[in-house]
Amino acid sequence: MITLASDFGSPYPAAMKGVILSATDARLVDVSHDLPRQDVRAAAFWTRETLPYFPPAVHLVVVDPGVGTDRAAVVGRVGDHAFVGPDNGVLRPVARRIAAETDADPEWFEYEYDDPASTTFHGRDVFAPAAAAVHDVGADAVESLSAVVPLPDEEVCDLRFPTATVDGDAARGEVLVVDDFGNAITNVPGEFLGGRTGETVSANGTDAPVETAYAAVEPGERLVTVGSHGYVECGVNRGRGDEAFGLAPGDDVRFRFQS
Amino acid sequence: MITLASDFGSPYPAAMKGVILSATDARLVDVSHDLPRQDVRAAAFWTRETLPYFPPAVHLVVVDPGVGTDRAAVVGRVGDHAFVGPDNGVLRPVARRIAAETDADPEWFEYEYDDPASTTFHGRDVFAPAAAAVHDVGADAVESLSAVVPLPDEEVCDLRFPTATVDGDAARGEVLVVDDFGNAITNVPGEFLGGRTGETVSANGTDAPVETAYAAVEPGERLVTVGSHGYVECGVNRGRGDEAFGLAPGDDVRFRFQS
Amino acid sequence: MITLASDFGSPYPAAMKGVILSATDARLVDVSHDLPRQDVRAAAFWTRETLPYFPPAVHLVVVDPGVGTDRAAVVGRVGDHAFVGPDNGVLRPVARRIAAETDADPEWFEYEYDDPASTTFHGRDVFAPAAAAVHDVGADAVESLSAVVPLPDEEVCDLRFPTATVDGDAARGEVLVVDDFGNAITNVPGEFLGGRTGETVSANGTDAPVETAYAAVEPGERLVTVGSHGYVECGVNRGRGDEAFGLAPGDDVRFRFQS
């Protein structure tokens, strides 16, 4: 199985699929091709939150604003999972997450390539062939590929999400992403809201009740909840939380319970 | 085969796919993840108009504004088809349609769950595992699942589309949905236009010819036609009928032939 | 394998998939259902640039503004590849491309149909069944289908992209399409920029450097590059080239190197 994630929209992913299917009969599963464009951190977030649910697979992740520069292509391995993508940190958070869940250590390899057919579409010309090649030998035999060179962990570009601070009735964090429903997903751990359903909390000065279901408030009304990723989210029942709270990815956010 | 329909956009459907593929090797087919957001009636319309074309499958439909409340999860069965989704009526019209076409009776079951990992993403934590479980035992053995309890038909939430009235040269109905092309699809049966191609009909006072092809009028010009669902639609050749006729889902619409 | 390309958005492609899967168990691969709406030339461009990467398959392409008129349905064959779609030229460029790459000649057939269930959705009622039928007999046995009649090449609707003119430091061409990143892709061959990386070129009077990577300029800055299709493209690093250069599909564009 090869999963595909990118910010390519349509129809560039089809060229990647064609290249892969010309090389292997792997099952293909689209994760998303609408990841926030050129946003490596958002791609790292969404792949960390979706790929661990998959059975062992080769995970191709191409959000690559550095395409055509000298950034390397990397292959990662965590247990039976393999990852293929640019060396810009995008693969790190998901690899760490799966490593933590499976008690395995991530291993990294540079995937060497030269003179691809294009300088602007390495998804098609570098990463898709790499994913097919990794799939064909299997995650446990990545080393057998001649294009692959082991990379020490410290030489692989890293990416870490900022850490929130929680202090009793108050928390400070950051909006990591806004999902397609408009929920502003922060890095504040859900435990901050633990057991306080029905209380009022403010987010950057905007008050809203803590709820466990969107429908606990009237349509159009704000709420603060623990999202499916385990983080505090700012939402609106049948509406967009980002707009109602005035929050965008990267914004600082301060929560405070009324007392 | 498991079909997937939701209003999740991207990339939440990937988490559902990962969960399913970790439990079963069923073939997955995306029906849509761009159903009108939180719109149970539109989801019921589009699934009724697409799922009956599929061979027997487990149809997962998650448009679920009540997620996290005490609304039940249900499993339906009509012949060899099974359905999994929230008990908000979304599965009823497609089940009735397939029942009518196959002369089978829909049967319903509650799918019991408790304490899913999240209160906001039952697609991942409740419905995806349910769909995989139903797929694994097969539609004819839904009863063998321990999480499943038979539900009398009258205890399952229902959803019916409004009925139009046709009286000779006039019809009154409602816009059910607007498709991605901008066609305003009403609940007025296509028979209302039967045999009157070329005549002029008004829709809420806006005149347009009855045609059987968009290209029968010039680009940018309005027409009224029988759509692929068998209903009267208001469209524009290479343009958006909803804008040209001033129609949105839920709007009342009155058609009248000029005489 | 059957690939699917259309301008249907969502969820109409699902009805096509259901029809196909009710007739055959072919592997389905979505190429795109977000091709520029009703834009036959853009569909011809994108299918030419993606389908040749696939292994032999039946390629279903439905961008069909003439649906419901008397335009024919056609089946094409080039070596082991087959094509199914409306006779509006959309299949011609990809067939020519694959023919050139494989040294095979395209062959064409009319696919006869009458009285489909709808006049507005031949994707579901004509082309999907045709693709399934072609898949089942195989590209080499298209003639065995009773619905199929050989068509002389000159009777098949043609579509050719305009040709650019290059004269030393200057080139005149046209914007063929704008991709989802906002790159304005012209018909000027990439050779026009050959070896002149770092020089300044103007596009309709707007200056930009020639670069081989978007990231060679600062975020928000313009560049001119050779895109992955081999044509000159006008882009912006992490932004939209179409807006920054004021270019839209169909626009004439003049490039001139400063001297």
From TrEMBL, chains A, B, C:
It comes from the Archaea. Pfam families: SAM_HAT_C (PF20257), SAM_HAT_N (PF01887). Keywords: S-adenosyl-L-methionine. Residues 173-254 form the S-adenosyl-l-methionine hydroxide adenosyltransferase C-terminal domain. Gene3D superfamilies: Bacterial fluorinating enzyme like, S-adenosyl-l-methionine hydroxide adenosyltransferase, N-terminal. InterPro entries: SAM_HAT_C, SAM_HAT_N, SAM_OH_AdoTrfase, SAM_OH_AdoTrfase_C_sf, SAM_OH_AdoTrfase_N_sf. The keyword S-adenosyl-L-methionine applies. Residues 2-136 form the S-adenosyl-l-methionine hydroxide adenosyltransferase N-terminal domain. PANTHER family: CHLORINASE MJ1651. Belongs to the SAM hydrolase / SAM-dependent halogenase family. This is S-adenosyl-l-methionine hydroxide adenosyltransferase. It comes from Halopelagius inordinatus.
